[in-house]
Amino acid sequence: MALWYWANIGSWAQLLVAINVRVEVVGRENVPRSGPLILACNHISVADPPIITVKTPRRIAWMAKKELFDVPVIGLAYYLYGCLPVRRFEADLQALRRARQALRRGMALGMFPEGTRSGRPGMNRAYPGTSLIALQTGAPVLPVGIMGTEAIRLPRSFFNWARGERPLVRLVYGRPFSLPRLERVRTPQVEEATQEIMRRIAELLDPPYRGVYARLCEMESANDAR
User: Fold this and answer.
1) Which tens digit of pLDDT belongs to each residue from 14-31?
2) Is residue 211 in a domain?
3) Among the four residues 129, 146, 163, 187, which has the most C-beta atoms within 10 Å?
4) Alpha-carbon distance 166 to 162, whole Å?
5) Which range of residues forms the domain containing residue 202?
6) Gap between the terminal Cα atoms of the chain
């Protein structure tokens, strides 16, 4: 499975990204090359996962909405890439169990805490799933910020190269950090952890992309200035 994954990422997927967008990568050295890891990223476009997958030096098991796995052919591809189906906007205990198992195997788990793409600059409020998994497992969290994918409109954007138009996408990897592993996780702890994860993502983004977490960044900057 790993060989199949890297053969595809290193060939047609890499080519598809290269001919359609220009990607500026910052902080790639911050990505741990092994061990359990939760990649937590803001979500603007359907182009976010393939760009991050191609540019990240780790095999990523993405948590993806269950509806995608029901699509003929495409659904099979999601399984082959090792993605984990999740029922969004509800307590999907089976998805949480699969995520914990993936981390126990030392995998990198890709998550979009907002739960769905915004389609524009500006983060939406996050759901608690990412912080819950981080608190339950103690796995380090790698904040990732992506900007510029709001200009990508699939499938029309597949032909950007023919028009000589390749939007610039900026991908920023922050420094990994860990939340305390807890045997019993309570709501206030999840809420605090969610705020911490989203603040760290927002700090990687230009101000227009921070959305509802702009205020958190301002408060942190004010505290640092004291």
Assistant:
1) 888 888 889 999 999 999
2) yes
3) 146
4) 10
5) 22-225
6) 51
